[in-house]
Amino acid sequence: MVFDRNRRIFIKHKICRFCADPSLRIDYKEPNMLAGFTSERGKMIPRRISGNCARHQRILALAIKRARNIALLPFTTAKIKMKEYREF
Ligand SMILES: [Zn+2]
Q1: Are 35 and 1 in contact (CB under 8 A)?
Q2: pLDDT higher than 70, residue 12
Q3: Which pLDDT does position 4 carry in this prediction?
Q4: CA distance 86 to 1
Q5: Residues with Cβ within 5 Å of ion ligand 1?
Q6: For position 11, what pLDDT does the model report?
Q7: Which of 27, 40, 58, 69 has the fewest CB atoms within 10 Å, i.e. is most exposed?
Q8: What integer is the mean pLDDT of 32-47?
């Protein structure tokens, strides 16, 4: 259940897109597809937001980690605010 600005209640139907479409494969060699499940900072999108099922989220997490390890996906982005630097 999600509240929008006007306080209306609507139920967002989240469906695992990998279950819905069995032809979709989770492959660590496809960074463009995996990037859709990471934030701008390179973090994985949690299951509660992406709507993936537990099984596919696990497979996806492994694929993202593999892609990171062979530099197809970033672990993090280098764009850090200068404010963060000053604290050290
Ligand atoms: Zn699924």
Answers
A1: no
A2: no
A3: 62
A4: 41
A5: 16, 18-19, 53, 56
A6: 57
A7: 40
A8: 94
pLDDT range class, residue 14, cuts 50, 70, 90: confident
53 exposed, middle or buried (CB, 10 Å; 0-12, 13-18, 19+)?
Answer: middle
CA 58–ligand 1 middle distance (angstroms)? 10
Please tell me the distance between residue 32's alpha carbon and the centre of ligand 1 in angstroms: 19
Name the region of 17 (left: φ>0; alpha: ψ -120 to 50; beta: rest): alpha
- Furthest C-alpha separation in the chain: 49
- How many angstroms does the Cα of residue 46 sit away from the middle of ligand 1? 14
The CATH topology of domain 15-77 is 30s Ribosomal Protein S18 (4.10.640)
Quote the ligand 1 centre to 76 CA distance (angstroms): 26
